[in-house]
Every structure is written in structure tokens, then in C-alpha cells.
């Protein structure tokens, strides 16, 4: 295991090996096995381009050579910011094969997030697409490069401008180093509840196990066709079972560049998509579009909804409108994934967020003092298991808070267990806004707001929203009376924060309500929001 990452205790690790959870395969090995098994079968469809398993395997080898020739070595970090395009897979599998570590960021991230991450992991390289959704990533890379001089390479899928083109990295395969399955394979970003995003180290062993477990629960096989409508760098469309689970099962991945019904519905009809995963607000848009249009969605067997709490009334419309099974997914990039099962009763599917996917998952629901609550009562969800991390990357301070002494991860979610053993997400203890599946750390936004000289204090809280479930509202105590909402939004934009984190509403206030302990009471603040 690499420096800076907490390991599973060796006894526990051995147990996961003995029970067959961890099989000792790396992602590089897996792709080789798939190429042998599925050969010319289509692995990925990207617009008009159909890529077979064999082709993906070959391209990964060629790119691995390119990376090695650039000087990128085992353990080096490579920040990946790619939309849903085939190079995402080629680049990642090439890096897996040389033991370099992708760090996944979202296409919506901007200079604030990317600069911080590049600095934090001491990234050697940054991979972008030329443009996507009207945004030129080369401009962003220029800004990042000025701020992070240690960043050696910027690689561009498409026209490289001043950087290196990905096309130049397909080279004659070279011999590859040995990569260990127990090592970290890549980093995911946590949704965050602290000032700065935390990095989640995932190993080959643990992540591959999570794919296997997901594929079993979701019943994927080589006839499955998964539509990637959400950004695939996110843990949910990446692995639950997502694009990697689909490849694991020998199925076909269909990439969409966006998630609107205009793009997705024709793809479902043409590619005979059997399963896709959405966040709740998108599910609502799709429901309305499907009811209004005469699209052929007959191939769809499973519609997954997760990332944020799905309203049961909306959930009950999925089956009648799409004529397929709804599967609720409650997961986290740190590990634990819960699913409703395909043959669960309607009541379970509509009203719960499912149960852990693996028999080796251990969960506890506890009160504020870490004592287990009575069955059916609401408490903090703790999780431990063969694919749940034991610590964030190089962050001992947060690790003390986020993990118990027994190695359970404190999810920050408040849940209750039903008599059927399923979980219902009832709220959240972490200081985070879940904006329709996009997570916003309140503290991160507050810190940006506090950088304005006219801001005396700032507090960001969730506010109810019919469509998104939650939006962000910032309360500001001014130092300078002339300060306006527009000025603050501009500040956040100029500081390079991703657009989804910019508060939807800003309220000015004279003082913050306090708790008995003298801390800002976010609960009371929420009551002061003007709708
Ligand atoms: P992230 O930190 O970005 O990986 O987000 C994981 C968090 O998203 C979980 O800890 C929950 O707070 C939230 N989440 C994910 N799925 C669901 C769901 N189905 N219902 C409610 N909350 C969810
Ligand atoms: O929200 C998430 O992070 C999430 C949701 C569903 C996730 O990581 C997952 C499934 O694996």
C-alpha cells in the first residue's frame, strides 16, 4: 500500500482474501482477461464510434507506453478531468497498467478545485478534453499551470493548443512494471463537508470487489447495455454498477455527453439500453418527458436513482411510466453502497434506500455517543467492510474525526432501519448541501465568501427546493453596507469555484442565531430563509 493511505489491519485484509472478496487482480489484469473473453464484442459506444474489448486493451497498452516515455512512473498522480468519452477509459487503464494513479475530478470543477487537488497530490500530469459543453479546458489548464509550476504535463484529448495531444501518446507497447492488487489504484474526491475536499484512496482489490458485488445485485451480464448519462468520473456511474461494472460483466457501455431526454431517449432506443443511473432531479425530468413523448424505451429493465434522497411520490411513478424496475442506490465514494433489490416489494423499492450490497458490509446506527440506537430509531450510519476505506489520503486530522477507533467510517448520514432491514436516509449530520446529488461543502463556500473584504461573516445552509431537493443559501453579515448579491456571486466565480457550488440565494443579516454553546445555529438560520 502506498505512503499516506491507511491500510486495513493485516488480519482483516487476510480475511477478505480468504473469503474471496479480494482476488488479487489489478485493473490492468482485468482488462487483459476481458479482451481474451470478449474480444471483438463492443465494449463502449461513443457517438458513431464503437470500441471493442480488444481495442480498448490494445490502446491501453499503447498509451501505457506513451506515459512511460513521458517519464510518468508507478505512484505518480495524474489528475483526470474528462467528460464521457472513450479516452477516459484508455487513459485510466493505461495508468492502471503502469501503476500511476488517476485522481478523478468532475467536468464542472474549475481552477479553485483543480489547483488545490494538483497541489495536494503533487500531480505530475493533468488530462483534459479540448472543450466540452462550450467550455475550453485548455484555458483552465493554463491557469492551473501558472499556479502549480510543479505540474509537468498537460495532456489534451483533441486539439492540444500549447499542450501535448493525447494522440501523440499512443506508442509501441513497452514492458510494464508489476502492479499490486493491494495498492491504491486511483483517488476519488469526497463530496466534502470540510474546508477543502478530501481524497479517497481506492485499491484494485477493494474496487474490483465492489464491481463484482454490484454486478451480482444489479444482475448485469454480457447482454446488459448501460447508458452513462451522468459524468462517469463520479463514483456512482463509475461503479454502481456503472461503466466499470458493465465492462466487468462483459456488457456494452453507451456514453452520453449530457443527460437530457433529448439526447438519452434516442440512445436508449437505438442501443437497446437495459439499465441507466440517474439523480433524483433528472429522474423527474425524464418522467415528465417520457409521459409526454412517444419514445421507444421498451428495452429499459432497470432505472436506478441515487445520489440524493428520492421522493417516494415521484418514485412511485417510475414503474408505470417506464415499465421497468426502479432501483434506489445510496452510496458514497468512500465505499459502502446500498441498493434496493430488483425483486424487492414495491413498498421497499419506493420507500427505502436499500441495504448494503455485500454480506461482508458491517453497518451500525448509533447515537451522538456512539451507542447503538434501538431498531427503527434514527441514528448516525457507520460503515466498515471490504470496499470501505479506512482513511483519507494524508489527512490525519480528518481521519481522527471521520473514522472510529474500530475502523468504521462515519458516513455523516442519519438513517433508520426498517423491519425489513432496509435503510431510510432521514437527514445528515455533516455540514454539506446535497444539491440534487451534487455535494457542496458549506465550509468550503464560506471560506471563499470570507475572502471578500466587505464580508464580516458567512454561513451557508441548505434550503428546500421542489426540484433539486436542496439548494444552497448563504447568510452574510456585511462589513460594508454597499455589498450586493451580484458582487458576491461574481467573487465566487472569479475565485474559480465550480458553478454548482455558487449559492442559489444570498441573504444579508445583522447577526447569526447561536446555539447554547455559542456556535452558529444552522438549524435556526434555515428557518430565516425567505422563500
Ligand atoms: P459523496 O461524498 O459525493 O460520495 O456522496 C455520498 C453521499 O451522498 C452520502 O453519504 C449521502 O449523504 C448522499 N447520498 C447518496 N445516495 C443517496 C440516496 N440514495 N439518498 C440519500 N442520500 C444519498
Ligand atoms: O452519491 C454518491 O456518491 C453515490 C451514490 C450512489 C455513490 O458514490 C455511489 C452510488 O457509489
Descriptive tags:
531 residues; alpha/beta; Rossmann fold; GMP Synthetase, Chain A, domain 3; nine-stranded mixed beta sheet; five-stranded parallel beta sheet; 17 helices; 27 strands; 33% helix; 26% strand; binds adenosine monophosphate; binds 2,3-dihydroxy-benzoic acid
Written overview of the protein:
There is one protein chain. Helix 5 (111-121) crosses helix 6 (137-147) and helix 7 crosses helix 9. This protein has 531 residues and is an alpha/beta fold. It starts with 9 loop residues before the first helix and ends with a helix. A nine-stranded mixed β-sheet has the order 2-1-13-12-14-15-16-17-18, with helices on both faces. The protein has a five-stranded parallel β-sheet with strand order 4-3-5-8-9, with helices on both faces. Strands 19-20-21-22 form a four-stranded antiparallel β-sheet, with no helix packed on it. The protein has three domains: 53-179, Rossmann fold; 206-428, ANL, N-terminal domain (Rossmann fold, 3-Layer(aba) Sandwich); 432-527, 2-Layer Sandwich (GMP Synthetase, Chain A, domain 3), CATH 3.30.300.30. The mean pLDDT is 97. Strand 3 (77-81), helix 4 and strand 4 (101-104) form a beta-alpha-beta unit. The chain binds adenosine monophosphate and 2,3-dihydroxy-benzoic acid. Adenosine monophosphate binds at residues 190-191, 235, 306-309, 328-333, 353, 411, 413, 425, 428, 434, 439.
Amino acid at each position: 500500500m502506498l505512503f499516506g493511505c491507511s491500510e486495513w489491519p493485516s488480519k482483516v485484509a487476510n480475511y477478505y482474501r480468504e473469503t474471496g472478496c479480494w482476488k488479487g487482480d489489478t485493473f490492468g489484469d482485468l482488462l487483459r482477461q476481458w479482451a481474451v473473453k470478449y474480444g471483438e464484442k463492443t465494449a463502449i459506444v461513443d457517438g458513431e464510434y464503437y470500441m471493442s474489448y480488444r481495442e480498448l486493451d490494445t490502446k491501453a497498452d499503447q498509451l501505457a507506453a506513451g506515459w512511460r516515455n513521458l517519464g510518468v512512473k508507478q505512484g505518480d498522480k495524474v489528475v483526470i478531468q474528462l467528460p464521457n468519452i472513450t479516452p477516459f477509459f484508455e487513459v485510466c487503464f493505461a495508468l492502471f497498467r503502469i501503476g500511476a494513479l488517476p485522481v478523478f475530478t468532475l467536468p464542472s470543477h474549475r481552477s479553485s478545485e483543480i489547483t488545490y487537488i494538483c497541489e495536494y497530490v503533487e500531480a505530475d500530469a493533468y488530462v483534459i478534453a479540448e472543450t466540452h459543453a462550450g467550455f475550453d479546458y485548455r484555458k483552465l489548464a493554463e491557469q492551473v499551470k501558472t499556479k502549480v509550476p510543479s505540474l509537468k504535463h498537460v495532456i489534451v484529448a483533441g486539439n492540444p493548443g500549447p499542450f501535448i495531444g493525447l494522440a501523440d501518446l499512443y506508442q509501441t507497447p513497452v514492458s510494464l512494471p508489476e502492479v499490486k492488487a493491494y495498492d491504491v489504484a486511483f483517488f476519488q474526491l469526497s463530496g466534502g463537508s470540510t474546508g477543502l475536499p478530501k481524497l479517497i484512496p481506492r485499491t484494485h482489490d477493494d474496487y474490483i470487489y465492489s464491481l463484482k458485488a454490484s454486478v451480482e445485485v444489479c444482475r448485469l451480464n454480457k447482454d446488459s447495455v448501460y447508458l452513462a448519462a451522468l459524468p462517469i468520473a463520479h463514483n456512482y456511474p463509475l461503479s454502481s454498477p456503472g461503466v466499470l461494472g458493465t465492462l466487468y460483466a462483459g456488457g456494452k457501455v453507451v456514453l452520453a455527453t449530457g443527460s437530457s431526454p433529448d439526447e438519452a431517449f434516442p440512445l436508449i432506443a437505438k442501443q437497446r439500453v437495459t439499465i441507466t443511473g440517474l439523480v433524483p432531479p433528472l429522474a423527474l425530468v425524464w418522467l415528465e418527458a417520457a409521459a409526454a413523448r412517444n419514445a421507444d424505451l421498451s428495452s429499459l429493465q432497470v432505472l436506478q436513482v441515487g445520489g440524493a434522497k428520492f421522493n417516494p411520490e415521484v418514485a412511485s411513478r417510475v414503474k408505470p411510466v417506464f415499465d421497468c424496475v426502479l432501483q434506489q442506490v445510496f452510496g458514497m465514494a468512500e465505499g459502502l453502497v446500498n441498493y434496493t433489490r430488483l425483486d424487492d416489494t414495491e413498498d421497499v423499492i419506493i420507500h427505502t434506500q436499500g441495504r448494503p450490497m455485500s454480506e461482508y458490509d458491517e453497518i451500525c446506527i448509533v447515537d451522538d455517543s456512539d451507542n447503538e440506537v434501538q431498531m427503527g430509531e434514527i441514528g448516525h450510519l457507520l460503515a466498515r467492510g471490504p470496499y470501505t476505506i479506512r482513511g483519507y489520503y494524508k489527512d490525519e486530522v480528518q481521519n481522527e474525526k471521520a473514522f472510529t477507533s474500530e475502523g468504521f467510517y462515519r458516513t455523516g448520514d442519519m438513517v433508520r432501519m426498517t423491519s425489513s432491514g432496509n435503510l431510510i436516509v432521514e437527514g445528515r449530520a455533516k455540514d454539506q448541501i446535497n444539491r440534487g446529488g451534487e455535494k457542496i461543502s458549506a465550509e468550503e463556500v464560506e471560506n471563499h465568501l470570507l475572502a471578500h473584504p466587505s464580508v464580516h461573516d458567512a454561513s451557508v445552509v441548505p434550503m428546500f427546493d421542489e426540484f433539486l431537493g436542496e439548494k444552497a443559501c448563504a447568510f452574510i453579515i456585511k462589513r460594508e453596507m454597499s455589498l450586493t448579491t451580484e458582487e458576491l456571486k461574481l467573487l465566487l466565480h472569479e475565485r474559480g469555484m465550480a458553478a454548482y457550488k455558487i449559492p442559489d440565494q444570498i441573504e444579508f443579516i445583522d447577526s447569526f442565531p447561536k446555539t447554547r454553546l455559542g456556535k452558529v445555529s444552522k438549524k435556526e438560520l434555515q428557518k430565516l430563509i425567505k422563500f
